[in-house]
Amino acid sequence: MMLDDDVVAVSPSSTYRVLKNAGRLDRRVVTPSKKGTGFIQPTKIHQEWHIDIRPCSPATKEEAERRIAKYVNYYNTVRLHSAIGYITPADCLVGLSEVIGQERDRKLEAARKLRQEK
């Protein structure tokens, strides 16, 4: 509702009608909508759901076994695991967790001393 000096209340529909009749609403520049540009419509229903997410799947069983063995080796000897103190499972099985922890503490203490000297 709009309030005016003469009129107590003016409804939005009467305001629109008055402005439309006066030509005040026709002065805006209308540009065509760019909504939807760049989207390619799929030719079949749900075609976008069936995209191959594994473009380099192993061709043979031996290739698959080699890839799995490579990942298992990485998982056990390279990747750090948070559940066992950010060391590798191979180091944990050998019993190096204490040695690695002491080495980390030594390096951390050296870094703290260096920071205090600056």
Please write out the topology.
Elements: H1 12-22, H2 61-77, H3 89-94, H4 97-117
Architecture overview:
With 118 residues, the protein is mainly α. It has a domain at 61-117. Helix content is 47%, strand content 0%. It has four helices and no strands. It has helices at 12-22, 61-77, 89-94, 97-117. It is elongated, with a radius of gyration of 35 Å. The model has no long low-confidence stretch (mean pLDDT 81).
Helix share, percent: 40-55%
The helix count comes to 4
Span from first to last CA?
68 Å
Q: Tally of extended strands?
A: 0
Shape: elongated
Strand content range: under 5%
- Point out poorly predicted stretches: none
Mean pLDDT: 81
Radius of gyration: 35 Å
Report the structural category.
mainly alpha
Query: Strand-and-helix sequence, N→C?
Result: HHHH
What about the largest sheet? none
Q: What are its keywords?
A:
mainly alpha; 118 residues; 4 helices; elongated; 0% strand
Short description:
With 118 residues, this protein is mainly alpha-helical.
